[in-house]
Specification:
The chain has six helices and no strands. By secondary structure, the protein is mostly helical. α1 packs across α5 and α2 packs parallel to α5. The protein is globular. It starts with a helix and ends in a 6-residue tail after the last helix.
Length: 131
């Protein structure tokens, strides 16, 4: 059960920062309040899991996130597919995930040395665009 939750949660988190092709937002079959509540609950559960997880468990969770774009999206006619499509098209739901899951994820990544010092150094010396 935890594995299936972790896969769903990883998919939910992955959808937040992934550029998606522009598409018309289909009306969700779920009321907005229900979607918001569901995303909040999943985000809070994932944040709690990450905060209490070992470094190995977080590394395993991160490995579940597809990086090559090769994984097929969930079926939009399924419940999870419909929710995922709605999240991908809703800045408010994306913000909910980012603000609830982001801090514990970053804290755990720093605690577990998952952010290479070289990357931090490179980011601190890279020229800033748009400023």
């Amino acid at each position: 059960m935890l594995r299936s939750f972790a896969v769903a949660a990883a998919t939910l988190v992955a959808s937040v920062g992934v550029a998606q092709p522009s598409r018309a937002q289909a009306a969700s079959p779920f009321p907005e309040e229900m979607l918001t509540s569901t995303v909040q609950q999943m985000s809070d559960s994932l944040a709690s899991y990450i905060a209490g997880a070992s470094c190995a468990e977080v590394a395993s969770l991160v490995k579940l996130i597809p990086t090559d774009g090769g994984s097929s999206p969930p079926d939009p006619s399924s419940i999870i597919g419909s929710v995922m499509l709605t999240v991908k098209n809703s800045p408010n739901l994306q913000s909910t995930i980012a603000t609830r899951v982001g801090p514990p994820l970053i804290n755990k990544m720093l605690e577990c040395n998952m952010v290479p010092v070289e990357l931090l150094m490179q980011a601190s010396t890279a020229p800033r665009s748009g400023r």
